[in-house]
Amino acid sequence: MDQEALNQMQHPPTRALIPLGIFLAVAGLLFYILYIRGTGQDANYIPSPLIDKPAPEFALPSLKDPGQTLTREVLLGQVSLVNVWASWCPACRDEHAELMRIAREHGIRLIGFNWKDDRVDALAWLKRFGDPYALILYDPDNRAGIDWGVYGAPETFVVDAQGIIRHKRVGPIDAQVWETEIKPVIERYRDQTP
Fold first, then answer.
1. CATH label, 53-190, candidates 3.10.20.30, 3.40.30.10, 3.50.50.60, 3.40.50.720
2. What is the pTM of this model?
3. For residue 16, pLDDT beyond 90
């Protein structure tokens, strides 16, 4: 065997690695499309089995009036944003100014869902930062949060006038999320309000 053939066996030409490189590039692209971008949503998209189903039944006290029990009936009659928040949640503070603006400028009913929080801390938080909510459910021990599939704060649900959950957002709402993700869903179902 001559020296050139021996060298080719020990050190294959770089051309032989090109198909491997193409394969890896295509595999990486497919992985990105199917697993990372496959939902068509951003990283805050988490599918919920509750979408297009009635909101779960609940009987929770009002944050502001512990003697008042709020039930699923509060969700009926108009489109609502149900916003899961807590005073201990930094991301809830990040979105709070946007929620204040939405309530003030868009006339959407915001229903607070105070989750795993202390009543005194939650009320102090609202006094300090403002209260955009028409009413606030108080769920300190996660009794209703489990049924809603809540696993963190903030989370926001769009609920239509019939009490059907139409959208779920995990993470804070900012102006871009409002305009591109939440507002279009609200407008779609506002038009269907009886």
1. 3.40.30.10
2. 0.75
3. no
